[in-house]
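Lab meeting minutes (informal)
Scribe: AK
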Amino acid sequence: MNETRTLARFVAKTTFADLPRRLVENLKITVLDTCGAALVGARQPWAERIVAVIRALGGAPEASVIHQCWRTDVARAAFANSVLIGAFECEPLTGSHASGTVLPAAPRARRSASRPCAAFTIRVRRARSARPPPRASSTDSTSSG
């Protein structure tokens, strides 16, 4: 439990000025990558069907859905946007778009916290520091040959 409190204090006290310049630059690339993934995802037939269901469910016009001309409540918009971000099924070596789960929820976090970017930054930092999965060796016993 102390680790959680320590992390929460760190997030609560971190300001944009505290972030290393290189991290901010990486964050910009990550957000741009996420937007590109969402635009490609918006053209995938299965994602179009999910977004159509979300639109049919309605909701207060609080937040935008990527590449759509309508708005819905923040929770549904976050769900739709995360579907679009992951719809193309092309993930980087870190395992997922670092912002595919965090960025769509940012509008919700912004309403309830004074520094939502700090949590997003921690997630990006963690993803950027992750090592790619090891490749199977040619002597792997599961290889056929």
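Next up, CB showed the second protein from the same session:
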Amino acid sequence: MEKSSIVEINLRLHKLVEELTGGNASKFAKISGVNVQTFHTYLKGTVPNTEALYGIHKNFHVNINWLLTGEGSKRTVGTDEKPLGNKFLLQVAEWLDDVARRDPRKPAWFELQFESLFPEFKTWLLKQRIAEGDQHRRAV
């Protein structure tokens, strides 16, 4: 791969981190399922491996063709994978909290079922937990 192509991939990756996680590369890596240290090497100019590309696509609906070539739309959702709305996911999370108040054993089972049926729920829940952790650290 030409050096100019690698630089362009790097610039697009930086743009995604800025737009999707407010510039927080560690958060972007965690949500993508990529080792944080490895992800930082991508930001310094290493081309992401296939697992990283898949994680970025799956968790942020990034068009890998756009990331690698700059062609096509930046974000994509396939015709067979429609993302769940945040309102719906929030309702599911509130429902799980309500179930937990009644029977502390049930939410784990339901959470696993939702994660297996709706991968977007798992991603959304992870993002919520990371955001809550960030807010807690700022408050301390």
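CB comment: Residues 86-139 form one domain.
No objections, moving on.
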